[in-house]
Fold:
Amino acid sequence: MIAVDWFGPYDLDSAREAAKSDYGHALYMCLGRRPYQRSRTLQYVGIGNAVHTRLTEEHHKLQQVTRERQIWLGEIVTAEPSGKKLKVTRATLDYAEWLHARFLQLPLNEKKTKTLPPRSVTVMNRWFKTDYETKYERRPHADWPDLIDYPDYDLPARLVWFGNRQRIFQAPGYADP
Structure:
């Protein structure tokens, strides 16, 4: 189980400054519009060990989002609030990125949308404003999931929860009998 607290929205410069002062190993998510797109959608999710170094205009994916670009910063909080905070590992960040890219089919994440993780993973998302305290009463965007649950045993489909509704993703190669 991986819990991610997302904070935003930021513009790119504000996200870089916030990441530099408040984040180390973290996720970042970009939404906006690429050329010829009519609506703002999720475009990319990435990870960084020093995440502020990834948030630049030269970023190979972020530069493709040319209009209405917003950045959200994600902090792994799996071990909170009780007990000692565990170190965020590369694997934890990797699995959180993988599930978002795969099950949301983010257009600028090519690598992690093709295969499934080798083990069971569940990601729970919570959404906060940039003051780090005010929680959004609703998800900031209708297509952003509250929960992504991927069991690695052989199921015909995987579930992603958006508030009280769910979306089912068929497993590759599965056909109803």
Summary: Confidence is low (pLDDT under 50) at residues 79-84, 171-177. The longest helix spans residues 90-104. The beta strands are 2-10, 26-33, 41-48, 67-76, 121-128, 147-150, 157-162, 165-170. The chain has one domain: 2-170.
